């Protein structure tokens, strides 16, 4: 089914928005997100590995040809370093590792080089926004005191380690290792990592902590850096398990109805709200369970299962059976969005991602059942003639579509659904680590410094 969904999403993108970043499935035209500046083709690059894994060979071939002829980084435009890294660099790296096609390696390294000036700050903590022609960077104007954002500068590690591996240029890995150095030197309030860090002073901004937006994938990448290093990156491992310990102590709470949730921390005060983005953490806890210290493996799996259940409830308690952007646990509500601006669903993958990890680690059939409920809801409410659209209010009985088919729907949501219903030996976890955009990157085994030679 996810194969047919992918075909519907891809065919319509091709028909109405080919070469542009994303598709507007209701108006049947292209959508250009400002996250990518003037770089085009986000959906193509994001979908490459999904097309390959689903054996959509014709489609993969036309996507590859587009990349060869048209993917151009010589644009005078300001881009989000984080978004371009996870979608474009990550997408190209995966496409290369899966298909062996040299064009993807070449483009990935070329783009990596274009991103390097973002690190030209007093601390080496990169800017959020970079003009890739002039090399001038800056931060989001709304971010606390000119700060860089934890989830943005903390979600470069996997891709940059692979850029060094594929280019033979150590500078990429050095840049991301330095970020860790800065973080390790700093005092962490209660052992927690605030979401804001000033790249000039090297000091924290506001003491806000979140495992959802602004924080999320930093934690994911600590764990995955260790796994991707064939468990040799002891620093990444220690940082991850220490962080989880602090998260458990200060952020994880149980509602009166017995739902485990991860709250947000604002200068010592808890906000009892959980974002859809935070739902990835169930899968993260399961993935990290095996390496957990002091016999905590079962506890981490249990934690993953609890988060999966809470996130399933956030879906189940809506009219459309699709989860809201954020949901709360206060004033008598549990796992329900109380604010209009949190009731939307933009085809996000995090809940399905957690089902996929929980399925692989426990094989409890409920995760496939929950995944199937999500498929039915997507087909009923998000599928339109021209593709798939997000929804403005999941508690409403009739759809109000937002008219965007996000590139991550093809890259993540549909890939995680496909993997949830596939055998475990498709992209097995001992060989592959998924970047935060669901792009699989190979584990770098200790003995393969000359891996490239062996493959040729």
From TrEMBL:
Alphabetized Pfam families for the sequence: Glyco_hydro_47
Keyword Cell division part of the UniProt annotation: no
Catalytic residue positions: 83 (proton donor), 216, 325 (proton donor), 350
Primary subcellular site in the record, as a coarse category: membrane
Pathway(s) this gene product operates in, as recorded in its UniProt entry: Protein modification; protein glycosylation
Keywords carried by this UniProt record: Calcium, Disulfide bond, Glycosidase, Hydrolase, Membrane, Metal-binding, Signal-anchor, Transmembrane
Superkingdom of the source species: Eukaryota
GO annotation terms (biological process): carbohydrate metabolic process
Sample GO molecular function, one term: calcium ion binding
Membrane topology type: Single-pass type II membrane protein
Disulfide bonds, paired cysteine numbers: 279-311
UniProt: Ca(2+) binding residues: 436
Subcellular location: Endomembrane system
Annotated Gene Ontology cellular component terms: endoplasmic reticulum; extracellular exosome; Golgi membrane
EC number(s) reported in the record: 3.2.1.-
Cofactor: Ca(2+)
Family of this protein: Belongs to the glycosyl hydrolase 47 family.
Job of this protein: Involved in the maturation of Asn-linked oligosaccharides. Progressively trim alpha-1,2-linked mannose residues from Man(9)GlcNAc(2) to produce Man(5)GlcNAc(2).
PANTHER family: MANNOSYL-OLIGOSACCHARIDE 1,2-ALPHA-MANNOSIDASE IA (PTHR11742:SF31), MANNOSYL-OLIGOSACCHARIDE ALPHA-1,2-MANNOSIDASE-RELATED (PTHR11742)
Protein name per the record: alpha-1,2-Mannosidase
